[in-house]
Amino acid sequence: MLLTIDGGNTSVALGLFPADGDVGDPPLGTWRIRSDARMTGDELALLVRGLIEVPTAAVTGVCALSTVPELLRAIRSMLPRYFPEAAHVVIAPGVKTGVPLLVDNPREVGTDRVANAAGAFTIFRSACVVVDFGTSTRVDVVSGRGEFLGGAIAPGIDIALDALAARTVALRRVELAPPRSVVGKNTVEALQAGVLLGFAGMVDALVGRVRTELPELADATVVATGGLDDAVLAECRTVTVRRPDLTLQGLRAVYQRETARRPRHR
Asked: Can you tell me which residues form the catalytic site (predicted)?
């Protein structure tokens, strides 16, 4: 089995895949735990092994990434100690992901964005716009040749809600439920309309601008991933496909490519 690990600022997503299988097949299981930069490799291993509930020997490969340096160190510490028989691939500069990065400075591109691009092109084999709802909200563009062309980054929904609650005495965090109207009749509905409908509108506007600037992407698949909030996603008119496992699928694609070109690590 292949274990995939996506270590983000807010959460750590895990996916378990069969050793073989068709491209885009769903994982055998997925899990999400709270991210903690103070977590040690031993603590991370305890959580991972407790969640996946399979013998360590059954894990023949691990592919991981993290945009959090401290968490990346914990992952690197965990792998040789707790998965010594598995082949390890950690996405970092120098790893051949198969995704050409057509940007000013490829080293600035987050490894999660690279994995999303790899997953999107591997599954759809066509131009894609990837909308990732995470700590930040990202709208990234993948060409019909699988190239990462760049994208737009905005604050995430949770960041916006936290900022409102922290900096405005009269406002507080609210449940992201659809309001009765865009014209809120009370503070809760006004916040729901502003955040939920506002973020959906922002995503739609960015996707629209991408299609205007790059006419060859007019019919591109718009795929949503990340810590998805169904209420926000339901208001996005441009999103065509929902793939919560997109980053994990990208890790799987990178693992298969990388291990095919080098001897198995023992």
From this structure: 112
